[in-house]
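Late entry, evening session. Most of the bench is empty. Finally got around to the prediction I had been postponing all week. Sequence below, unchanged from the version circulated by S.P.
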Amino acid sequence: MIFRRLVPAVLVLPLLATPLLAHEPGTGANGGVRVDAGHYHAELVADGTPAVALYLSDGSDKPVPAEGFKANAILVVDGKAQRFPLAPTGGNRLAGTAPVAVPKGVKGAVQLTAPDGSTAQAKY
């Protein structure tokens, strides 16, 4: 009888803990919005100009070298999707230039490809 009560509890507990493993969006070290992107954190920095930067870090918020990464940004500005590439520029930073000025707090996504070919998506 105890076994029947214990089994459902054991099966449900891991499901309750899973959301705790993901980080909520927050402000990153460079003042942008930091979200999870697979095994990485991706901080998007947009300041109202066409210049956009993406900073990579690991689960412990330690910088991850951007060399070898590729990224494509798809950001919605004034109701229109703006697509453009982001490339490594040194350190843990990828950068690119949008066709239009990108406001702070923009919504959209960045598709990230790691040097090993694995992919992840960061949603803003």
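Two things to note before I forget:
The CA atoms of residues 68 and 116 lie 9 Å apart.
The two ends are 48 Å apart (CA to CA).
Will write this up properly tomorrow.
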